[in-house]
Write a structure and sequence with these properties.
Blueprint (H helix, E strand, L loop, with lengths): L6 H4 L18 H32 L3 E8 L3 H9 L1 H7 L6 E8 L6 E8 L5 E12 L3 E6 L4 E9 L2 E9 L6 H21 L1
Antiparallel strand pairs: 1-7, 2-3, 3-4, 4-5, 5-6, 6-7
Helix pairs in contact: 3-4
């Protein structure tokens, strides 16, 4: 074929299946482009899965974070100050720039917990919500947050002190250590308020 190259054959992406050859066993242009397109897409998909495998694996595997504090009060007071709305609003924030203006707590299996958390300057805020899966008075509560993650809070008496331990499913947006620090800051705020009241 010594004539001018026919470009229209090479831009024809309409596939013919199964692929076939001309009389000299050469792949004709339309089939060649179709096969090239399929191989390119397959290669791109492979590279994407390879580069994101660790992220996909971490997403499937739920990480749990545990924090704790020791409060110098008896277990009954520790329980009440952790679960009663009039106390929750006094400590349920990580820094002084935040506040918890409102909270409600239906402390029973199937009951709902809600605490409004917002910046004092009004720039941001959200409702932290959960449904109780288990409630054992002065001992343990387990609830599931609105995004499906679970939280367990346990209370253990030690002489005149109470050990409070919180274990929660980490979310996938923020770094694990940032999440740990945020929840720990709130728990320490609870400790300070409870001991001072």
């Amino acid at each position: 074929m010594g004539g001018a190259f026919d470009l229209t054959k090479w831009i024809n992406l309409e596939p013919t299946f199964p692929c076939h050859f001309d009389g000299r066993r050469n792949l004709i242009p339309s089939d060649f482009l179709f096969v090239k397109l399929v191989l390119t897409l397959a290669s791109s998909l492979f590279l994407f899965l390879k580069s994101n495998f660790s992220l996909l694996y971490k997403t499937m595997e739920t990480k749990k974070i545990t924090i704790h504090t020791t409060v110098s009060v008896n277990i009954q007071k520790a329980w009440e100050y952790y679960t009663q709305p009039e106390h929750i609003t006094k400590w349920n924030f990580a820094t002084d720039e935040w506040q918890c203006p409102y909270a409600s707590n239906d402390l029973r299996v199937g009951g709902k917990y809600m605490a409004r958390m917002e910046a004092k300057d009004g720039s941001f805020g959200f409702d932290f919500e959960g449904i109780y899966d288990e409630v054992i008075d002065s001992e343990k509560i387990i609830y599931t947050m609105s995004d499906g993650r679970q939280v367990t809070v346990s209370f253990e008496s030690a002489d005149s002190q109470t050990e409070v331990t919180v274990t929660f499913d980490a979310e996938s947006t923020n770094d694990l250590e940032i999440q740990r620090q945020g929840w720990q800051a709130i728990l320490e705020n609870y400790k300070r308020y409870t001991e001072a009241s």
